[in-house]
Amino acid sequence: MKLHIHTTINGEPAEFLCDGHETLLSALRNTLGLTGTKEGCSTGDCGACSILLDGRLVPACLVLAPEAQGRTITTIEGIAQHDVLHPLQKTFLENAALQCGICTPGFIIAAKALLDKKPKPTEDETRFWLAGNLCRCTGYDKIIRAVMEASV
Amino acid sequence: MVSIRYEAPQSVADAVRLLSAEQGAKVFAGGTDLLVQFKMGARQPTAFVDIKRIPELVGITITDRALRLGAATSAAVIGEHDELTRLWPGLAEAVHLIGSTQIQGRGTVGGNLCNASPAADTTCALIVNRAECVIAGPKGERTVPVETFCTAPGRTVLERGELLVAITIPRPAPRTADAYLRLIPRSEMDIAVAGAGVSVTLDANGVCTAARVAIGAVAPTALLVPDAAKALIGSKLDERALNAAAAAASAAASPIDDKRGTVAYRRTVAGVLTKRAAKIAAGRIR
User: Fold this and answer.
1) How close does chain A come to B1, measured CA to CA in Å?
2) I need a labelling partner for B82 at 20 to 30 A (CA). Which of A2, B61, B193, B266 fits?
3) What angle do CA B6, B165, B38 make, to 5 degrees?
4) Percentage of residues in chain B with pLDDT exceeding 70?
């Protein structure tokens, strides 16, 4: 039997049906069409599916969809204010901090969680915070530069 | 695939009822181990029993006597707690070492223990701080010292229907501090090759009056090493005492050879980390 879940996604009320063992990542992408959150490893190792759950940075692949009941979710689709990009989105563009782009939504969500908690992190703090986000294209330097620039 | 039920009980009693009634019902906390095992096909639960909606399972309480960690409190919440970090810096550094920021946002202290990995980072820090596990079950509540909770890799003392509710730690005696160190070949995102936790109490003259030493990833479970503590007690943590503690830790280790390290290397490193952690703990006493 499907579960009927009521939640809040990117500031808007949302509802969906899911199986008891379905991941929140699957519900976001396959049921709600929010495909900005990417599927990488599905085992919590790569950070591509990073979202904020009640403001907390988590991998959506290790959250069960029914856990979203009554919670607040932020995905990459909720980062820009209408037509105005989030500062991190701008600095990622300006620094060309992406190549294939699969890891980018996860990096931006994770970096936002860092800057919300600590507006001016050191480069070391930023690198440690983002250690769970893997990028196989850029070599990380441009990503770190983009986050540092958004932090000023 | 058959759908697996999702249950979110609101009380310990309801959780125990669910777990007792159904052998395939599994406690679901942060999901960082259980969901990975489930996806790999290593575990096929019939129900996920999410314990995070039970108020007493989540949160941190510090009184003038003790710390109480709800078993489903995430590593991130523990690592952000200022008073906890001040009183138990070794425990705080252990939770900061678990996985990534994302994993720390999900993984829980109770889950780290119940997964019963010999390399679990929090276990040594809990052992040296005399933590006790509060367990609820069909026959009522019981408490076991954390060093006896894990019995083998992946195995614990929990019986069918039982649930780890909380971990309690007595407030440290004056002039007491802890530290936890682990060795990994990279700087982040890895599992301990060896780990060591130490808690020491020093008197006004710098003489060690009490100590606890625990080592991880070098035996089927994390180990309390009373002989290493004995080597420290009565000393001023001079080189001779520290070396004796290191030797006792190495002697207590019974590691395996695997891709992370050899038996000889792990045995040596367990001693080295014990010595270093003891120095760090002592340096934290003001």
Assistant:
1) 10
2) B193
3) 35
4) 100
Given this model, what pLDDT does residue B3 score? 79
B22 pLDDT tier (thresholds 50, 70, 90): very high
CB atoms within 10 A of CB A81: 8
Which stretches of chain B are DSSP H helices? 12-21, 34-39, 75-79, 82-87, 89-97, 101-106, 109-114, 121-128, 226-232, 239-252, 263-283
Domains defined for chain A, CATH in brackets: 3-77 (3.10.20.30), 87-150 (1.10.150.120)
Q: Does B74 touch chain A (CB under 8 A)?
A: yes
- Domains along chain B? 5-50 (3.30.43.10), 57-170 (3.30.465.10), 177-283 (3.30.390.50)
Name the DSSP class of B175.
T
Summarised one tens digit per residue, pLDDT across range B181-227 is 999 998 888 899 999 999 999 999 999 999 999 999 999 999 999 99
Report residue A149 as tokens: 């620039």
The verdict on pTM exceeding 0.90 is yes
Q: Using DSSP, state whether B226 is helix, strand or coil.
A: helix
Q: Is B274:B213 a contact under the CB 8 Å cutoff?
A: yes
Residue A148 contacts residue A126 (beta carbons within 8 Å): yes
**Which of A37, A38, A57 is the mutation pick for testing B, counting most B CBs within 10 A?**
A57
Q: pLDDT tens-digit profile of B135-155?
A: 999 999 999 999 999 999 999
Binary contact (A44, B32; C-beta < 8 A): yes
pLDDT, chain A, mean: 97
DSSP H helices, chain A, are 24-26, 87-94, 104-117, 123-129, 141-150
CB B169 within 8 A of CB B126: yes
Looking at the predicted structure, is the pLDDT value of residue A32 above 70?
yes
Residue pairs between chains A and B whose CB atoms are closer than 8 Å:
89
